[in-house]
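Collaborator request, handled under Task 6.
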Amino acid sequence: MMLRRAILFAAAIPCLFAQTKKFDVASIKASPKDDNRFMLGLPRGGTFRATGVTVKMLIMSAYQVNAYQVSGGPSWIATERWDIQAKTDAAQGLMPRDQFDAMLQALLLDRLQLKVRRETKEMPVYALAVAKGGSKLTPHSGDPPKPEDRMRVGFGSMQFQASGLGLLAYQLSLQLGRTVIDKTGLTGQYDFRLEWAPEPGQGGPESIGLPPDPSLKFPPADPNRPSLFTAIREQLGLRLDSEQGPVDMIVIDSVSKPTEN
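C-alpha cells returned to the collaborator:
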C-alpha cells in the first residue's frame, strides 16, 4: 500500500515506566480541513501525539484490530480527523505497547464516552496454504536484515526478508479486508517478493481507518501483472482458500464526538 503519509507503530523497547492507567493531560482538536497528513505512534518521554487521525483509527490502535474488525458507530468515526496531544509524567523513553493500549482506551472512554464490546463472529476468511507443486519461497540465509529492510510494501508489491508467513498473512488481510489465516505449516524465515495488479478497494486509506482520499493518486495498474490471487500461486507457490472462520470484532455500543480543549 503506497501512501504519501506514514503510520508509525514502533516496537516497544525497555523504558523507565511507572504503572499508570491514564494520561495526566490531553488535548483533542479537529484537524485543519486542508491538511491530509496523519501520524500515530507510541508515546516517547510520556508524550503521545497523533495528527490527522480518525476515531476508527484510534480504536484500531487501542484494541489492536484491523478496519474490518470494527463494527457499528456513526459514519463520522471514519471520516472526521483529529489532532491529539496527551502526556503523562510517569514514563521516560518509549512506552510499552500494552500499557499504551490501556491508556488510549481510557482516553477514548473519558473524552469520547466510547463503549465497546468484544465479539467473535463466524465470517468469511481466507486460509493461506501451500499450492499444488509446493512452495517457491527462498529460505533466508546470512545475517538478519535491517528493520527497515525486513518488509517493504508498495502499490501492487510486497518484499520480505527473513520473514515468517504470519507477517505475509497479516499484510494480505489489510489488502483484502478479510482475515487471512496462515495454514501453510511453514515455520521458517524466508525471502520473497510478490507483485500484482491491484484491484479497486485493495489496500488504500480505508484499510487503516482513514477516509477515502481523492487527492491520493496511484499509478495505473500494470496490465502485464496478474491478480493478487494468481500472483500468490505463481510467484510464491501458495494459495488462498475461501472459508468460514471465527473473527474477533470490536462492536461500538456508543461514542460521542470529543470536546475540544
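The cover message to the collaborator said: "Residues 16-120+249-254 form one domain. The radius of gyration is 20 Å. Please let us know whether this matches your experimental observations."
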